[in-house]
Amino acid sequence: MTDATPMDPTPEGLLALAVDAARDAGALLLDRFGGPASGVDAKSTRTDLVSDADRDAEARILGAIRRARPDDRIVAEESGESTAAGGDGLTWHVDPLDGTVNYLWGIPHWCVSIQVEGPGGALAAVVFDPCRDELFTAVPDGARLNGRDLGLEPSSDLGDALVATGFGYASERRRRQAAVVARALPEVRDIRRAGSAALDLAWLAAGRVDAYYERGVSVWDWAAGAMLVAAAGGEVTELAAAGDDPMGVAAARPGLLAGLLAIVGRPA
Ligand code: IPD
Ligand code: CA
Q: Who contacts 123 (Cβ-Cβ below 8 Å, separation ≥6)?
């Protein structure tokens, strides 16, 4: 334990902290967007990139969480996991810049994603899109976009569904993902690959796409978005790892998930 007094962990208090941190990091990222990139390095493969923008945004977010909640566990994309001494058993999932390739190529579709959960489940989530000034938020009893309540209508026909997905950075994984897309494409209205898993899920919560699936995502990519979809009344499940296929996430409007899973895999 540290000497600092941790702030009260109500969902609303945690959400306020997450929103402040996401807006602060988003402002930093937007300020540099379109300028020359610095510190660009490859991570898992030569196409999986990180830059100083990702690192600096993450440092800002982690600093804000640590100041308010010094004993919480944090799992963050660029700095990994930091396990603190105790506290209330809360874990933060932080992706400071989801859609790094879009960001580096000047495509205005990327976001900051932060979720916090306790032993009883997800407590608060934010996905912030600085280019559109869109703030997606969730607490357990509801999801909002710029303060407006979100609620997903049911649907029964996968053939009508616009389905978002994404691909990993390794060739062999992409070969397998291409085979799944080839199976899905004739069965749905269309496929979207926009380049940010967190925004795919946030847009699903807002009804802009009808379903999402992807294997090989990391928890910081999907934790906030999954909470948004669930709080908006949608269905979310983890996909079981199987053979060479890593775990994944599938989510949809009520009524569509079973049909989607019949194509993309079984739940965990
Ligand atoms: C990636 C994006 C992408 C998804 C990848 C993720 P990053 O995150 O969310 O849409 O398809 O699986 O790794 O690298 O931009 O933070
Ligand atoms: Ca990510």
A: 9, 11, 14, 90, 116, 117, 139, 140
> Which of 49, 94, 98 best tests ligand 1's pocket when mutated (most atoms within 8 Å of CB)?
98
Strand 91-98 and strand 73-76: pairing? parallel
- Give the mean pLDDT of the chain: 93
Q: What is the pLDDT of residues 62-73, one digit of tens each?
A: 999 999 999 999
For residue 95, which atom of ligand 1 is closest to its CA?
16
Asked if residues 220 and 93 have their Cβ atoms less than 8 Å apart, the reply is yes
Q: What is the pTM of this model?
A: 0.95
Q: Are 109 and 212 in contact (CB under 8 A)?
A: no
Among all ligands shown, which has an atom nearest to the Cα of 48? 1
Ligand 2 centroid vs 102 CA: distance in angstroms? 11
CA–CA gap between residue 248 and residue 4 (Å, rounded): 37
Q: Which pairing describes strands 142-145 and 148-150: parallel, antiparallel, or unpaired?
A: antiparallel
Alpha carbon dihedral 252, 128, 35, 42, in 10-degree steps, equals: -60
Q: Which residues line ligand 1 (CB under 6 A)?
A: 77, 95, 98-101, 166-168, 195-197, 214, 216-217, 221
